[in-house]
Write a structure and sequence with these properties.
Glutaconate Coenzyme A-transferase, three-stranded antiparallel sheet, eight-stranded mixed sheet, about 260 residues, about 30% strand
């Protein structure tokens, strides 16, 4: 499925068939924007479990990665945002789920670095906090105590504009697989993302040793303007077309008073 120039796969089930128990997976999406829901549902259907997932967040209770979480298929989440999901909170506080809470920009750079062959980098984000000093709960014992805490990280001083500043060392992230959603893609795996879906999908794709992409519209090679491509096909190994009418959700739909009552009454 991943050897030729034509990287298309006929079904989501076939695309994820070799993702086994215990795999690590980088998953694209920002909130619910750009969630590769067809691939997630295929993974759910085949029963794969004990997964280590790297994603900005874990969906909501009944959508996105939340469906895998609800089925107790996820062992560990590496995320920057854990809201909008009651089951996430319940599993974490009860000791069923491990969480590596990571600042959002740091998480993005860890994925990008992993896909770029960079082993680690220094950043000021987290200096002077438990992110650098260690002690953040990663797993609770189910009785309110901390079973596993984050370790301390290396901190070094670098001079920036003549001023000594402290930086913390962050290691890059690579995963066994990546699951991403794109608006358009060609048979060579070149992808274009739409708006907020571009936030984490490209870097998640880069970090996976095998990247599987679902696209709303599949086109022939050469149909995409090279200047519009957000992720080159070298990072993508399998492509499945899911259609433009695929269901999309938002966490919370809000409207202004003016929109709700255009007549002003």
């Amino acid at each position: 499925m991943s050897g030729g120039i034509d990287k298309t796969v006929q079904s989501a089930g076939a695309a994820v068939a070799d993702i086994g128990d215990g795999a690590s997976i980088a998953v694209g999406g920002f909130g619910l924007a750009g969630n590769p829901i067809e691939l997630i549902n295929a993974l759910l259907a085949q029963g794969t479990g004990n997964l280590s997932i790297v994603s900005n967040n874990c969906g909501v209770d009944d959508w996105g990665l939340g469906v895998l979480l609800h089925a107790h298929r996820i062992r560990k989440m590496t995320s920057s945002y854990v809201g909008e999901n009651r089951e996430f909170e319940r599993q974490f506080l009860s000791g069923q789920l491990e969480l590596e809470l990571t600042p959002q920009g740091t998480l993005a750079e860890k994925l990008r670095a992993g896909g770029s062959g960079i082993a680690a980098f220094f950043t000021q984000t987290g200096v002077g906090t438990q992110v650098a000093e260690g002690g953040l709960p990663r797993r609770y014992d189910g009785s309110g105590g901390v079973a596993v805490a984050s370790p301390a990280k290396e901190v070094r001083v670098f001079e920036v504009d003549g001023v000594p500043r402290r930086f913390v060392l962050e290691e890059a992230i690579t995963t066994d697989f990546a699951l991403v959603h794109a608006a358009r893609g060609d048979r060579h795996g070149n992808l274009i993302f739409n708006k907020a879906a571009r936030n984490f999908n490209p870097i998640a794709a880069m970090a996976g040793r095998v990247c599987i992409a679902q696209v709303e519209e599949l086109v022939a090679p050469g149909a995409l303007d090279p200047d519009q491509v957000h992720l080159p096909g070298i990072y993508v190994h399998r492509v499945i077309e899911v259609g433009r009418d695929i269901e999309k959700r938002v966490e919370r739909r809000t409207i202004s008073d003016a929109a709700a009552n255009p007549g002003g009454e």
